[in-house]
Design brief:
Rossmann fold, 2 domains, binds NADPH dihydro-nicotinamide-adenine-dinucleotide phosphate, 251 residues, amino-acid biosynthesis, five-stranded mixed β-sheet, binds the ligand O=C(O)C1=N[C@H](C(=O)O)C[C@H](O)C1, seven-stranded parallel β-sheet, Dihydrodipicolinate Reductase, domain 2, alpha/beta
Length: 251
């Protein structure tokens, strides 16, 4: 029985994690952590340091500024963490990389299988099209999303840059009355509205030809399923930083 701590348990994703786990027989939520404790099937704390229950793994869908404290306490308690929270600053990312020297940490800005396949496809296309095609990323999310652009859009952009001979400069949204697009730009555009779960589109625009590779999340369950798979995977790993490629390689 996999014993899970649900960090950000009152949030949109935290609630999906709790529901999916309650439908499974091989894992359970032993405690939740959130800013406002409320009644639930498990005890809810405001910090990992106060959690009394034994746990095998922590799943985190919360807010970027909550991640460093979570990781500090996870290191002290030696509990592996799945970090799904996006919008981490450079300093917060440094803290995460440091913590990964002590405990196993799985981090991905998008836990769905589809986006991780999209990234592999986009990398192949970028290698071939890098000289004659302009690359732009458009992401669309619900009106409650706090970070923009999405962690996934940045993860896709970084994956593209990894394979390009000449690295691109990220341009966030465009507004100008004078400037045309420069060759070394990679445009990233964020749309927010309604209840859109998560849409990502990568456009390779060439002369008289456009290639679009896109992914559409139709429910939050796809992220929760991925995070639970990541949790099962990471409990058996040595300290280090893992991502969706580690899961895909495992098959
Ligand atoms: N990697 C992936 O596949 C996915 C990642 N995400 C990311 O996960 C994160 C959460 O998303 P979502 O569930 O939609 O967001 P929500 O805002 O609905 O949920 C976040 C929860 O975390 C709580 N929280 C904030 N600060 C702290 C803290 N210091 N300690 C404990 N809990 C805290 C919030 O409380 P309060 O509301 O009171 O502030 C809220 O209950 C976002 O960064 C999002 O981008 C989302 C979907 C998929
Ligand atoms: O906040 C969300 O909702 C999502 N956030 C992640 C991101 O920032 O990429 C993943 C997903 O698209 C949903």
């Amino acid at each position: 029985m996999l014993k899970i701590i649900n960090h950000g348990c009152n949030g949109k994703m935290g609630r999906v994690i709790s529901r999916l786990v309650s439908e499974k027989s091989d894992c359970k939520i032993v405690a939740g952590i959130d800013k406002n404790p409320s009644s639930s099937d498990f005890p809810i704390y405001t910090s990992l340091k106060d959690v009394k229950e034994d746990a095998d793994v922590i799943i985190d869908f919360s807010f970027h500024s909550a991640v460093p404290e979570l990781l500090k306490n996870a290191e002290l308690k030696k509990i592996p963490v799945v970090v799904a929270t996006t919008g981490l600053s450079d300093d917060e990312l440094c803290t995460l990389k440091e913590a990964a020297k002590t405990i196993p940490i799985f981090r991905s800005a998008n836990m769905s299988l589809g986006i991780n396949i999209l990234i592999n496809l986009v990398k192949e296309a970028a290698k071939i099209l890098q000289n004659n095609y302009d690359i732009e990323i458009i992401e669309k999310h619900h009106n409650m999303k706090k970070d923009a652009p999405s962690g996934t859009a940045l993860m896709i952009a970084d994956a593209i840059n990894e394979v390009l001979t000449e690295k691109k400069e990220y341009i966030y949204g465009r507004h100008s009355k004078t400037d045309t697009r420069k060759e070394n730009e990679l445009g990233i555009h964020a749309i927010r509205g309604g209840t859109i779960v998560g849409e990502h589109e990568v456009i390779f625009a060439g002369h008289d030809e456009i290639l679009t590779i896109s992914h559409s999340a139709r429910s939050r369950e796809i992220f929760a399923i991925g995070a639970l798979k990541a949790a099962e995977f990471i409990v058996n790993q040595k300290p280090g930083l893992y991502d969706m490629n580690s899961l895909l390689e495992k098959g």
